[in-house]
């Protein structure tokens, strides 16, 4: 896909999905605005591309820092076309709800939900002005189904999905699409840091019995934030589509059409997934 002259803001760009998306967008001609607290990794990966990349090693849970970075980037590049919120943490996992520490819960929400709100809040005025924008919040299948032992993570990602539905409706007539991606288990440093029992619990519910790859996730993300995606907004894409939700909630296999996996012809507008299921059965 061609993203020449487009400006993309990516959080969590120093590793995992954020890093993979940033590299692919850069190869596709985009100019990047990368936000991540890990300055060392940002410099290592992108420090030699000052003509195409702006680096902001900031705490994205600080709204004033986010606003300053976005305003600086918008002044420098002139426009902002894309926002991809990839930053996220799991917090403490493999514990039951009564064992959750309130401080850890708040920290997870601050990074997974509040930071996504802050970045969207900052870029939307620029997108409204130019009557064009693509926003993608990376959520999780845990936000749809709830993973036992992951209260903080599941609840924070559910909040991200809720925000996506609201924003998708609010800006649909302004040339701006807002969608979410709910991956299963993608092999990233975040997953590698989780207890083996927690990863096994999740991958056992996937028909392929394995983690997804970064390449599989990025392929779908690029479509969602591309100019080609003109009609899908307020929607939570699930990756992989076939089989995943069926394993989690025992729903019929016809629940989601296979064409959504490649997104070549998806035309779903702000429809709740549960409503989508009712219409298709």
From TrEMBL:
<dbReference type="InterPro" id="IPR057326">
    <property type="entry name" value="KR_dom"/>
</dbReference>
<keyword id="KW-0560">Oxidoreductase</keyword>
<feature type="domain" description="Ketoreductase">
    <location>
        <begin position="6"/>
        <end position="184"/>
    </location>
</feature>
<dbReference type="Pfam" id="PF00106">
    <property type="entry name" value="adh_short"/>
</dbReference>
<dbReference type="GO" id="GO:0016616">
    <property type="term" value="F:oxidoreductase activity, acting on the CH-OH group of donors, NAD or NADP as acceptor"/>
</dbReference>
<dbReference type="InterPro" id="IPR036291">
    <property type="entry name" value="NAD(P)-bd_dom_sf"/>
</dbReference>
<dbReference type="InterPro" id="IPR020904">
    <property type="entry name" value="Sc_DH/Rdtase_CS"/>
</dbReference>
<comment type="similarity">
    <text>Belongs to the short-chain dehydrogenases/reductases (SDR) family.</text>
</comment>
<dbReference type="GO" id="GO:0048038">
    <property type="term" value="F:quinone binding"/>
</dbReference>
<dbReference type="InterPro" id="IPR002347">
    <property type="entry name" value="SDR_fam"/>
</dbReference>
<protein>
    <submittedName>
        <fullName>3-oxoacyl-ACP reductase</fullName>
    </submittedName>
</protein>
<dbReference type="GO" id="GO:0006633">
    <property type="term" value="P:fatty acid biosynthetic process"/>
</dbReference>
């Amino acid at each position: 896909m061609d993203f020449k002259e487009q400006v993309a803001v990516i959080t969590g760009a120093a590793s995992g999905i954020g890093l993979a998306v940033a590299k692919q967008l850069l190869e596709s001609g985009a100019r990047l605005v990368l936000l991540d607290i890990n300055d060392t990794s940002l410099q290592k990966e992108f420090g030699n591309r000052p003509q195409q990349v702006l680096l902001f090693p900031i705490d994205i849970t600080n709204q004033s820092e986010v606003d300053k970075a976005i305003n600086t980037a918008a002044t420098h590049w002139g426009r902002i076309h894309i926002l991809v919120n990839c930053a996220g943490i799991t917090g403490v996992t493999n514990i039951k709800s009564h064992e959750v520490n309130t401080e850890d819960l708040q920290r997870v929400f601050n990074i997974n939900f509040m930071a996504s709100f802050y970045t969207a809040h900052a870029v939307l005025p620029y997108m409204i002005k130019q009557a064009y924008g693509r926003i993608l919040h990376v959520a999780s299948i845990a936000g749809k189904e709830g993973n036992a032992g992951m209260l903080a993570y599941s609840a924070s990602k559910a909040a991200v999905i809720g925000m996506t539905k609201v924003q998708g409706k609010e800006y649909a007539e302004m040339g701006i699409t807002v969608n979410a991606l709910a991956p299963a288990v993608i092999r990233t440093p975040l997953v590698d840091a989780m207890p083996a029992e927690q990863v096994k619990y999740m991958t056992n519910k996937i028909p392929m019995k394995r983690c997804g790859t970064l390449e599989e996730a990025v392929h779908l993300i690029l479509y969602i934030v591309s100019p080609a995606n003109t009609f899908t907004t307020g929607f939570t894409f699930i990756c992989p589509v076939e089989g995943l939700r069926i394993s989690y909630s025992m729903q019929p296999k016809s629940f989601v059409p296979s064409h959504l996996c490649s997104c070549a012809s998806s035309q779903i507008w702000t429809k709740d997934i549960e409503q989508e299921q009712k219409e298709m059965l």
